[in-house]
């Protein structure tokens, strides 16, 4: 059985720079960390490995500096790491990102289970997992917080729907996105860091992929574009309605019309 866990390097603080030309985050590798939800994804992938001995590989897309989170994943317990890195991948939106990851997973070989974090802290779209499953042509389940059972041809999971839980069985190959849960992700092992000190992650460039149509990657393959990014303006102005009027409703209606809310 082969498991692939998708991870991402994100800014370690809210003080990030924006490229003024294309509206994307500037990722220089400084002051970065692994996306918190992906730590739970790794933990769940390693739980699958404990239940059903399998091979767990981590994959990410990013600049060469993103190698650091692949090394961290290996030190946590993953068997190998793959870095999708090429200038042609730069500026990708969720669609182009998901497509690039799908091609990277196909490059890695047979994969029975793909595990993703629910979302990333820099984009917060929570769309890549579902779109990745679409491009891979496999079923998926979102918001998984617990593995119930791993069978030969399927996996049984619990999905957290805020006010209720559902137990679902999904056939391999499949994809799950992982919610934060009560099981804290394990820490990187010093013993594994020494054991894998000479281990080189696999660099996967554009020319190594099966689909080399440049219109599917990076800015060229992104149907959505950021039109404008700005810091939100805090507006604490308020309007007090005249307490002597006979109709608060009509006064409120006029106010909403003036503001073009209705």
Summarize the structure in words.
This protein has helices at 36-51, 67-76, 94-108, 128-136, 190-195, 248-258; strands at residues 2-6, 9-11, 32-34, 55-61, 80-84, 113-117, 140-150, 154-160, 165-171, 174-178, 202-204. It is of the alpha/beta class. The protein has a single domain, classed as HUPs (Rossmann fold, 3-Layer(aba) Sandwich). The strands form two sheets. The protein has a nine-stranded mixed β-sheet, with helices on both faces. A two-stranded antiparallel ribbon has the order 2-3. β8 and β9 form a beta hairpin. It is globular and about 75 Å long.
Describe this protein with a few key phrases.
262 residues; alpha/beta; Rossmann fold; nine-stranded mixed β-sheet; two-stranded antiparallel sheet; 11 strands; 26% helix
Task: Summarize this entry quickly.
The protein has 262 residues and is α/β, with parallel strands linked by helices. The chain is built from 6 helices and 11 strands. The strands form 2 sheets. Strands 9-8-7-10-6-1-4-5-11 form a 9-stranded mixed beta sheet, with helices on both faces. It has a two-stranded antiparallel ribbon with strand order 2-3.
